[in-house]
Amino acid sequence: MLAIDSSFLDFKQLDLLALRQTAIHRLDPRAKVLTTLCFIVCVVSFDKYQVSAMLPFLIYPVALVAVGNLPLGYILRKIMIVIPFALLIGLFNPIFDRQVIMQLGTMDLSGGWLSCFSILIRAILTASAAIILVATTGFPAICEALEKLGMPQVFVVQLLFLYRYIFVLTDEGVRIARARQLRSFGRRGLGIRQFGSLTGHLLLRTWERAERIHMAMLARGFSGEIHSTRRQIHFGSKDLLFTCCWIAIFILLRIHNAPQLLGNLIMGSMP
């Protein structure tokens, strides 16, 4: 449990990466949010058998990692967390969809395998875009951008609380699990009864913490609105250029299958 938790809490590093001062970090959060949303919409809109057409979309996360000076190894480790879930979703596709769609040399590829690869690529692309967005913007700034783009404030506040206290509750769970291990005298593992007891204890502590936080917020005059302490960033010409250029690239890549066009060009030029 502690090993899983250490990996999960490592997401806090994203907030530290968001404090850097690169050209990407200095852009208006609304520009990055809009661009990322357009990227995700274009990626998920492909047909379930499309694989090669999505590969050129890798240019967006690769460019942002390079310009934003983000640690590639860290980003890849975070993306790897999503891959097992994507494989779990597409794992049974080859069993139920056995119709041969294409041939790769002497090997027949069924629609099930193509859709499985498609799900995996979609997961990698969308997860990388979301992780890079948080790493170059910061989650509070993303929520502020969503509010300025028209999202109801109540949802923005809930997102901020969720992001803040999911780490607090995980810390609480780690302390409970560590205390149990120190008192177990070398006994290994958690039985069903012990796990249920720890879960119930965590829920009770969560309830008590929520009441204390609620009373403290009311005592400080909380009225349902969280005021940002970030410096005001205005949507300027650089932000508009960034958004328009990337959206135009996404639309072109969505309409035209770049690898197929390149392959036809190469094959057509051969004698």
Q: How many strand segments? A: 2
Which strand-content bin applies to the residues? under 5%
Tell me the helix content.
55-70%
| Alpha-carbon distance between the two ends | 61 Å
Strand order of the largest sheet: 1-2
Main beta-sheet annotation: 2 strands, antiparallel
Task: Please provide a written account of the structure.
Strand 1 (100-104) and strand 2 form a beta hairpin. Helix 4 packs parallel to helix 8. This protein starts with a helix and ends with a helix. The longest helix has 30 residues, at 153-182. Strands 1-2 form a two-stranded antiparallel ribbon. The relative contact order is 0.15. Residues 1-5 have low confidence and may be disordered. The chain is globular and about 75 Å long. Helix content is 68%, strand content 3%. It is mainly alpha-helical and 271 residues long. It folds into two domains: 1-149, no CATH class; 152-223, no CATH class. It has 13 helices and two strands.
Characteristics:
271 residues, mainly alpha, two-stranded antiparallel ribbon, disordered N terminus
